[in-house]
Amino acid sequence: MVKPRIIPCLDVKHGRVVKGVNFNDLRDSGDPVEMAVKYCDDGADEIVWLDIVATVEDEEISLDLIQRARDALSIPLTVGGGIRSVRHVEQLLEHGADKVSINTYGLENPAILAQVAQRWGEQCLVVAVDAKREGDHYQVYSHGGRTRTPRHLDEWLREAQDLGAGEFLLTSIDTDGTQQGYDLPMLRYARQVVHRPVIASGGAGNVDHLASAIQEGQQAVLLASLLHEQHLTIGQIKKQLFEKGLDIRWPL
Amino acid sequence: MEIAVIDYGNGNLGSLLAALRRLGQRPHVVRTAKDIRHTDTLIFPGVGSMNSVLPRLKDHGLFGWLNEMRSAGVPILGICLGMQLFFDESAEGGEGLHWLPGNVTQIDAPILPHIGWNTVDATPDSFLWRNLTEPYTFYFVHTYRVQPADPGIVRGLTQYYETFPAALYAPPLYGVQFHPELSGTSGAQLLNNFLEIVEDPHGNLASG
């Protein structure tokens, strides 16, 4: 059976990693390529690279970095953040991304999802969704969780799946940053709504949180603060999950 | 060594080309007939949909050349969709190269694509497993699977809700359903094993 994926997330701005520069055995570098390679060597199952691209110069820097990361990385690389055109997707893929992650622009212009899926295949398209509990349902937010959209989570997941999403990266606004654990009810709900893999994001503060999500049937989990603030390496995290009896890719 | 990587669409070939370069190779991409030159091996990469591949290969003047290469016994590695192309036709829509009898059908699973690292149970026959440590674990991303008419060509099986071929060998064709170019050190070793066979077809490198 397929092994749950442990996926570190790199937040990159102006060509530097904006979070997560603490490694026991790595100098405070902030170089996203160096960090991606370190994650890969440590046992990451994939890398998600979220780029905050504000200017044309940023975009060029980031394409060059993505190419350098691809040349060195032997695991899948998903790149997202600020994608606003098929041309931008094309450039990211040409520079070595295996998949692209689209969030806000997909909500504003859902046709782009179908365009990407038709041209490069559904396996290439990760649809990132930020959602928040509101009364009896979950509401979708855009612009990094700042803007409320009219869409309910179930409607948007189904629509994006029909348009060609090969995977979802689902962040709970309620649990993100709390380090109190993933939003298991939201993830459970999403898994019932769609038949695509869902990557859990937001709230993991310790290895038990990862284990609970995986034990529930979660196929993939995204790591951010657990790596950046708890000073754990991917290897240490995977070793602990393995010792808990989870069927992950470990030892490498 | 001359390695031709076939681009039969809007191929996203970056990972495969990078993996080959890390092995010290300088692969060249063949998109149309004008890209054809002498080659020691062909690699069919594994992205996209089978739908439009055959018409495109014909339109771009590659179909006849590919058949000649196969008849001449040039080792060919098919990865994911590249392996599926060896067969007759796909439930995804679209025809294959008809090099191997059999079809391509959708995996029977509640969550698709099958994405992630999974193990391969190898048959005792020789394949490209030399110097790999069991359990063989590779990265998969696919919705469809092959159903060879001849089960004797299967060299490895993988399970995701159902069991399907993950590796096959029908000289000069090698096929893998997983992506060696995305499978860390295991994938690099497997690609290297393939290249060693290309370089030394009569050696003992195929064993193991």
Care to give the gist of this entry?
The complex is a heterodimer of chains A (252) and B (208). By secondary structure, chain A is an alpha/beta fold.
End-to-end separation of chain A in angstroms reads: 17 Å
Topology as H/E string of chain A?
EEHEHEHEHHEEEHEHEHEHH
SS element count, helices of chain B:
5
How many structural domains can be distinguished in the coordinates of chain B? 1
Mean pLDDT of chain A: 92
Helical content of chain A, roughly? 25-40%
Contiguous runs where pLDDT drops below 50 for at least 5 residues of chain A: 20-28
CATH topology of chain A: TIM Barrel
- Largest interface: chains, residues each: A-B, 36 and 35 residues
Could you give the count of β-strands of chain B? Answer: 12
Q: What shape does the CA trace of chain B take?
A: globular
Tell me what the CATH architecture of chain A is: Alpha-Beta Barrel
CATH architectural label of chain B:
3-Layer(aba) Sandwich
The helix-and-strand class of chain B reads alpha/beta
Alpha-carbon Rg of chain A, integer: 17 Å
Strand order of the largest sheet of chain B: 2-1-3-4-12-11-10-7-8
| Mean of pLDDT of chain B | 94
Structural write-up:
- The complex is a heterodimer of chains A (about 250) and B (about 210).
- Chain A has about 250 residues and is of the alpha/beta class.
- In chain A, about 40% of the residues lie in helices and about 25% in strands.
- Chain A has 10 helices and 11 strands.
- An 8-stranded parallel beta barrel of chain A has the order 1-3-4-5-6-9-10-11, surrounded by 7 helices.
- Chain A is globular.
- Chain B has about 210 residues and is an alpha/beta fold.
- Chain B has one domain: Class I glutamine amidotransferase (GATase) domain (Rossmann fold, 3-Layer(aba) Sandwich).
- In chain B, the strands form 2 sheets. A 9-stranded mixed sheet of chain B has the order 2-1-3-4-12-11-10-7-8. In chain B, strands 5-6-9 form a 3-stranded mixed sheet, with no helix packed on it.
- Chain B: InterPro entries: Class_I_gatase-like (IPR029062), GATASE (IPR017926), Imidazole-glycPsynth_HisH (IPR010139).
- Chain B: It comes from Sulfobacillus benefaciens.
- Chain B: Keywords: Amino-acid biosynthesis, Cytoplasm, Glutamine amidotransferase, Histidine biosynthesis, Hydrolase, Lyase.
- Chain B: GO terms for molecular function: glutaminase activity; imidazoleglycerol-phosphate synthase activity; lyase activity.
